[in-house]
Fold this sequence. Notes:
Blueprint: H1 3-10, H2 13-29, H3 35-41, H4 48-60, E1 64-65, E2 74-75, H5 77-86, H6 95-102, H7 112-127, E3 130-134, E4 142-151, E5 154-161, E6 166-171, H8 179-193, H9 198-225, E7 229-232, E8 240-243, H10 246-252, H11 255-282, E9 288-291, E10 303-311, E11 317-326, H12 331-354
Antiparallel strand pairs: 1-2, 3-11, 4-5, 5-6, 7-8, 9-10, 10-11
Helix pairs in contact: 2-4, 3-4, 6-12, 7-12, 8-11, 9-11
Amino acid sequence: MSDRAKILAEMNDRSREVFRRVVEGYLDSGDPVGSRTLTRAMSEKVSAATIRNVMQDLEYLGLLDSPHTSAGRIPTQLGLRMFVDGLMEVSTLSLQDREAIDATTGGKEPGVASLLDRVGQALSGITHGASLVLTPKHEAPIRHIEFVSLGPERALVVLVFADGQVENRVFTPPLGQTPSSMREAANFLNVLAEGRTLSELRVHMRTEIARRRQELDAAAHALVESGLAVWENPGEATERLIVRGRANLIDQADEADLDRIRTLFDDLERKRDIAEFLELAEAGEGVRIFIGSENKLFSLSGSSLVVSPYMNADRKIIGAVGVIGPTRLNYGRIVPIVDYTAQLVGRLLSGERKG
């Protein structure tokens, strides 16, 4: 059980109701919710003083906050996340929303790009937020790859395919990457990429990593057997070969062997980083809600993202649709809208590709 689930399970009915009503009031109005407002809404008759005590306890737990000098409370990011995960009631898709989404299928302009453009406009209009539409992944052979740093936690991969199409994808790079390391990764991949699709390139990288790992194990075996070295964190990405008794190595270990081991380590680490780039560039998430700073792309604007993948006839994720808005999104209403839209797009594209 997660810490959030544990906190929720340990709340009594009154605390849970106060918490739920504060969050729902905030999501509805955007304003802090005060104790006097809650006394009129609670299912049991309690005083404003009692509710204030409960709110203080919830604030102590990090679930509520009191902005400025206001007597009311608003949910924190942790509070919103706990509400979404444990207390939110997802509403049924309304007939009006369903009709607006269904209307995107009747456009005069044919083609996938036109359909997705209509879907984006419909999502934006229905939810009064910004829409996010990721187009189907391209499986043509790659002609060129380039990584561009957009900041400490954002990067862009530019994929140029053999059929002339170009895709730009934003992702969160592995920690510690620099513009120069990204250029090096791109140069390395471009040598391997010719004639391969993105999926084939990723499989090839895994094979390369496994091969280098076998070489490293063989080179280090004698050192480990002799007790001069030991593996730390074996099998993990952070593993290291710790050399003991360095003075003894002068007599017992060939310096060339140690240099080769160091080179293999550097090469393995570089290939792992590059493989992680590929994984992130190609990743397709399941249905997700990102709140505030959980959402790396939009955290600076204090936004939330509700996103759902859409799949082809083979149940393979080929793209995603979503809605971006303030953290006080009406999550209960938007989740079914995004979910229904993703399913509709998947069905339409599968039908189009069959035809």
